[in-house]
Specification:
CATH architecture: 2-Layer Sandwich
Helix content: 10-25%
CATH topology: Alpha-Beta Plaits
CATH superfamily: 7,8-Dihydro-6-hydroxymethylpterin-pyrophosphokinase HPPK
Structural class: alpha+beta
Number of domains: 1
Number of strands: 11
Distance between the termini: 35 Å
Shape: globular
Order of helices and strands: EEHEEEHEEEHEEHE
Strand content: 25-35%
CATH class: Alpha Beta
Length: about 180
């Protein structure tokens, strides 16, 4: 069920969370960022944002999963959410992630579509905005690098305001400048 969807011919801002805890995680994030930037379907100059890279303890995973590296990028996108989600799934597979995969299992690459401008609702296999964006420090801290005033529809707060309400544990530690 689509609740709200802007005109698909207009350009939208897409926020994408990147995570990795297998192999060379920093390399996985860098390669994924380059591939994501190549997906941006605008023929005009693209406004792109990227967070720093953060090291985080695993959340909802077994303790032996190892630390994750996380980041968030924002691109311009001219198609619908289903098309972008399919491209992100393809990039995960190219990075070595097996589909289907067990939930919360270690992974070389995890890409989550967080938002696509004002799209709200269920679009095929995805829900926008991401239903757990407001409870994940490992997403909100990187997102606050470039969008602290982004309004979170479900929480009815900005990213910055929502971060103040979350526990400070597990820690989210900046380890690297942006992926761009």
């Amino acid at each position: 069920m689509k609740i709200s969807s802007p005109n698909s011919s207009s350009s939208c801002r897409a926020g994408i969370a990147l995570g990795s805890n297998q192999g060379n995680s920093l390399l996985h994030l860098r390669e994924a960022t380059a591939a994501i930037l190549s997906l941006s379907s605008s023929s005009q100059p693209v406004a792109v944002h990227s967070s720093s890279v953060y090291r985080t303890a695993p959340v909802d995973c077994s303790l032996d999963s190892g630390y994750f590296l996380n980041a968030v990028v924002e691109i311009e996108w001219n198609s619908g959410p289903e098309a972008l989600w399919a491209e992100l799934q393809r990039l995960e597979i190219l990075a070595g992630r097996e589909l289907p995969h067990p939930r919360h299992a270690p992974r070389p690459l995890d890409l989550d579509l967080l938002y696509l401008s004002s799209h709200q609702g269920v679009f095929g296999p995805i829900v926008l905005p991401h239903p757990r964006i407001g409870s994940r420090r490992f997403v909100l801290v990187p997102l606050s690098d470039f969008a602290p005033r982004l309004f979170l529809f479900r929480e009815k707060r900005t990213v910055q305001e929502q971060l103040l309400l979350l526990p400070t544990s597990p820690s989210v530690e900046r380890i690297e400048q942006t992926l761009l």
